[in-house]
Amino acid sequence: MSSSIDYFDCPKCGGNAYREQDNRTCEIRHGCSDCDWKGEPVDNEVQAYSKITTGFVTQQYMLSKENKYICIEQFFTAGDEVSREDQDGNPVDIDTSKEEYHNFDMEQPESDTFEDWYQDNKNNDSIQRIYRGVIEDNPDYSLTFKEWAKKFYDECVDI
Fold it and tell me: Which of 123, 131, 120, 6 is nearest to 68 (CA)?
């Protein structure tokens, strides 16, 4: 059989698909080496997406013993504007009646111990900024970040 073959991404699984045409009979065959696709139409329904909800973050602050305002809690309030996009950031349309409701549970988990709190917050920009401010105000400050964080936790967090 004399034929020509074109290769492309399978519309069903994304694998290695082909289109083969017999040069004598013009018969066309489709197939995929990775799945059972044989050229039939495929429903290209979105398989995964991100849901982006515009809203507001509310942060609650309290005055610490060192006379600094410290964020002690934050939560998210969802607005009405919602968009959905694929993994490449392109907008997608989906049948929203198929989307299961998932509540916005954005409140910070409570830490039981300093070590838990430290693991959760050691890379937190706000905490790092407060520490850098202490060092800038006191160039001879000798506590390491973890030592300072323990003191901060004892005075401002574990209340």
Answer: 131
Residues 90 and 98: their CA atoms lie apart, in Å, by 20
**52 strand-pairing partners:** 83
Digit-coded pLDDT (tens) for 41-70 = 777 677 788 888 888 888 888 777 778 888
- Give the chain's largest Cα–Cα span: 89
Entry field: residues in the chain:
159
The whole-angstrom separation of Cα 12 and Cα 92 is 18
The 10 Å CB-count burial string (b at 16+, else e) for 41-79 is eeeeeeeebeeeeeeeeeeeeeebeeeeebeeeeeeeee
CA 25 and chain centroid, separation: 52
Q: Which residues, other chains included, contact 2 with Cβ-Cβ below 8 Å and sequence gap of 6+? A: 22, 23, 24
pTM of the model: 0.38
CA-wise closest residue to 10 among 28, 35, 27: 35
Q: How many CB atoms lie within 10 A of CB 151?
A: 13
